[in-house]
C-alpha cells in the first residue's frame, strides 16, 4: 500500500524568523536560502503576514510588499505561498475596520499570496466571518483556524476537545467558506493525546476530503510527539522549519521529523540530501545573526504560563533593550494568573501580547495596579467574546482604569466608527507628509500607524542584531568584528542588578580595568526625592520611549492626573502627577528614549 503523502509547509521564512529573531532578518540575507529550499523540492512556504509584516517596517527599513514580490519571483508561480492573518485584526494588533480588513486581502492577493491562514485568538467565530469573505472575494485559498493551548494546571473551563468541537461546529454552522482547516497551537502546550483526539474529532465532523493540518512549536518540548499524534489522528499536513531557526521556540526541524516518521506509513516527498544542502545554505545566510539562547531551548515552565514561541524571543529581546531581562522569570510566572482571570483566550497574537503586557505590568508596578490597554479592552469585550467569562473584579478594574463600559457589540462595528481606521484618514495623512497615496502606502500607514508614516518618509530605525564587522547591530550602531551588545564579551556600558541593587558597569577592550559604579537612583528613590526650591521631579516608571506628552509647561495638574504616556514592551505606561501643582518644566520630548527613574517633568 502506498504511503500517505503529508504536506509540509516550510515556516522558516516567517514563523521561524519570528520565533528566533523577532522577525528581524533582512531579505537580501535570506533569499539565497529560499532558492536552496526551492531546489530541495519544497513548494509550500509561509512567507509573510503575522508579525513579519509590521516588523519589516518597524525594524528593517524594508517594505513587506516588496519582499513578498521578490519571494514569489524566486519560487515561481506554482508554489503555494501562505501568510498568517489574525481575523479582523489581519496583520495589526488592533481590530481593523471593514474597509481595512478587505484592503488586507486585496493587497496580499496582489503581492503573491496563494493561501491565507485565518485565526481568531478568542475562537470567536464572528471574528472570522467577514475576513473569510474578503479572502475568498480576492481569489485566495482560505485556511480557517481553531486555536489551541493547554490551560495551566488546575484551570478548567475551555481548551479541551469538547471546546474545540464546539468551535469547529460553530464554523461549519456559520457558512464560512474554507479550503482547509488548521489547528494552531502557538505555545506548543497541547498534550499529544489531546491533539490526537481533536484531529480525530475533526476528521469525523468534516469527512475525508477536507485538508486538516496541525501547527505547533517546540517551546514546551512535545511538538514532535504532537505531530505524530496528529498524523495518527488523520491530519494531512504539518508545519516544519529548517535549522538554525527550528526547534526551541520555533517549529520542529524538517530533518528531525523525517527521522521521526521512519518506518511509518507517511511520505513528505522530500529528499534528505537536498534538505541537508538547503540547511547548509540557510546556516551560512544567518551565520552573522545573534541567536538569543532562549530561542534554542525548550522550557518546562511554558505549560504553566503559555507563552508562544513567536512572542517569547520578541519579548525577551525587548527586555534586553529595556534593561529588564532579569525580570523575565517573574513575568512568565505572573502570566498564569493573567491567563486564568482573562477568560482563557488562546495565547497567540494579539492575546498573547495582552497577557504578556499585563503580566509585565503586574511585575513592574505591583499586581493589578495598572491595566494594560489591550488586556483591559479584551476582558471588556472590545475584541469579541472570550471563551469563558473573565474575572468580574478584573473587568471592574479595567472599566475604571480605561474609562470604558463592557460591551457585546461586534468589534467591526466599533472599528467602523473610528476615523483613524478609515482609508480616508490615512490618505489625508500621506498627503500632509507629501507621500504617494497608493493603496499599498495607505494600508502600510493604517496597519503601522505613525510608525508607518515614519517608514514611508525614510526615517525608520534599522534595528537588527549581528555579530560581524560593519553590520548594523542595533539602533544604527556599527559592531566591530566578533562584537554584539548582547554577547558576554561585548565592550561598552551596561547596567547590572545584584541583590536588587543596580550598578553601572563599563567594559573596555584590552587589559583595562572593569569600572563599576552605583547606578542612578531607582524609581522608588527618585519618587521620594524633592528638588528643594525647584519642585518635585516626576520619574519614568520603566525604561521606554515617550509616546505622548499630555500637558504643557505652566499648566496646573491634580494629584494622580495623567501627564505623559510612555511606550515600553509594546504597551502604554501612564505617568501620573505625584502631587498637585503646576508643570514648571517638561524635561523630555516625544519619541525620546528614557531610563527608569529619569526625571520627565518638574511640578512646583
From TrEMBL:
Keywords: Biotin, Ligase. Residues 518-534 have a biased composition (Low complexity). Residues 518-537 are annotated as: Disordered. Its EC number is 6.4.1.1. One of its GO terms (cellular component) is cytoplasm. Residues 6-276 form the Pyruvate carboxyltransferase domain. InterPro entries: Aldolase_TIM, Biotin_BS, Biotin_lipoyl, Carboxylase_cons_dom, PCB-like, PYR_CT, Single_hybrid_motif. GO terms for molecular function: pyruvate carboxylase activity. GO terms for biological process: gluconeogenesis. It is an enzyme of class 6 (ligase). Gene3D superfamilies: 2.40.50.100, Aldolase class I. It comes from the Bacteria. Residues 529-604 form the Lipoyl-binding domain. This is Biotin attachment protein. It comes from Malaciobacter molluscorum LMG 25693. The lineage of its organism: Bacteria, Pseudomonadati, Campylobacterota, Epsilonproteobacteria, Campylobacterales.
